Amino acid sequence: MRFLMITVAAATLAACSPPVPDSGQGVGFGNYDDYQQQQRARDAQLADNALPPSTAISGEPVESDGTLVAGEGADLAAETQAVLDERSANSGEDVVHASPSNPAPEAVIGASGISEENNFDAVGAQRSIESDAAKIAQNRAQYKVIEAEALPKRTGNTGPNIVDYALATKHPRGTQVYRRIGVNLDGKAKRNCAKYPSADKAQGEFLAKGGPQRDRLGLDPDGDGYACSWDPSPFRKAVGG
């Protein structure tokens, strides 16, 4: 009895299990030969279906109804006027644009306005020793020597002349010639000299107010006769003294 039950159970399990596929059929095909044949057919189809050639661009002119977009007419007129102006500036000749194929420019020979003084052949053809001698003689004849003349004398009352005073004196600066009496003469002289733009102006005013014997303005504390350290040596050197 137990053997019969085991037999019935085994038969039931065998009926429920799916059939085992044939290992020789390949993957998804009846057999491997059919798979290879279909693969070759697919490769041939892919080789025949190449990319289509690019569409050629037509060179035929596009018909237009003659209507220009706003602004195109003005641009065309401006370009035309620019070309006309360029041709007019070049006396009607075409403009030469830069290009490697253009011929080399020709050298300008004998252009007017260019000096040929450094060209010995050209100078030798145009001039000679005789012509140079005549030119030198002409220049010497036109040469004129202007003799030095005495300076005109001053007219009117222009005040003391500091140049004449410098030439009339001989002692250097700092040599006391005149007596000065007072307290803190140097400090007063510094303040008083600061009022004048230059030592020449101070010397002229000093002479006009009684100097060099008297120093009413307090400009000559050391009594050398030169106000505000005025220096007469440049005037003396000018005349060779």
Automatic annotation (TrEMBL):
- Annotated region Disordered: the residues are 87-107, 202-225
This protein's superkingdom?
A: Bacteria
PROSITE patterns, per this entry? PROKAR_LIPOPROTEIN
Protein name as annotated: Excalibur calcium-binding domain-containing protein
